């Protein structure tokens, strides 16, 4: 297949730069503790300095993979599929999610919302970032707002986006892992003073699982 043909199929969402896929326990947010099959799509230009998967940023180093093959693998393991990245909305998610839904799977996404929403989703976890702010269609459709707290100023950012999401969106504050010991007490105090929020922790890291 020529480079032009590969690019065309990537643009259509028929091929996706697959970084990794694995069956594990969801460690964060509203579905913490649930088994899920994770599909990590390469490519991200949001550029969070504390990102723990920087190897996902360069889509070119991850092999273009048939959406059909990704779906066949996913369907063997779990009824809950989590599409993550990188930033998966850099790519057209409609073909992949349509094929997953055809298998009667629950399809979740974890996204910064920096790109327009594509695909059909049972659960949208929006984790907005200051460098590239989320699009309105993601804000309007998010089921979960998960704001990463790295410093005190992030509480103001969290409140700004709590006002922008839909009224049914569940609100989470999650400490950035490298500063968790410093930020957890602040988050606990904040949630107790502002009970519309919930605490999210990266429990998979505490459990030492992928």
From TrEMBL:
Pathway terms, separated by semicolons: Purine metabolism; 7-cyano-7-deazaguanine biosynthesis
Listed cofactors: [4Fe-4S] cluster; S-adenosyl-L-methionine; Mg(2+)
Superkingdom, natural source: Bacteria
Residues bound to S-adenosyl-L-methionine: 50-52, 86, 127-129
EC number: 4.3.99.3
One GO process term, biological-process aspect: tRNA queuosine(34) biosynthetic process
Residues binding substrate, per UniProt: 25-27, 40, 84, 210
Location of the Radical SAM core domain: 31-210
Claim: Amino-acid biosynthesis is one of the keywords in the record: no
CDD domains associated with the record: Radical_SAM
Keywords: 4Fe-4S, Iron, Iron-sulfur, Lyase, Magnesium, Metal-binding, Queuosine biosynthesis, S-adenosyl-L-methionine
Primary enzyme class: lyase
An example molecular function term from Gene Ontology annotations: carbon-nitrogen lyase activity
A Pfam family of this chain: Radical_SAM
InterPro entries (alphabetical): 7-CO-7-deazaguanine_synth-like (IPR024924), Aldolase_TIM (IPR013785), rSAM (IPR007197), rSAM_sf (IPR058240)
Keyword Cell inner membrane: no
Residues the entry annotates as binding [4Fe-4S] cluster: 44, 48, 51
Catalyzed reactions per annotation: 6-carboxy-5,6,7,8-tetrahydropterin + H(+) = 7-carboxy-7-carbaguanine + NH4(+)
Protein's job: Catalyzes the complex heterocyclic radical-mediated conversion of 6-carboxy-5,6,7,8-tetrahydropterin (CPH4) to 7-carboxy-7-deazaguanine (CDG), a step common to the biosynthetic pathways of all 7-deazapurine-containing compounds.
Membership in a protein family: Belongs to the radical SAM superfamily. 7-carboxy-7-deazaguanine synthase family.
Complex formation: Homodimer.
Name of the protein: 7-carboxy-7-deazaguanine synthase
Organism: Dokdonia sinensis
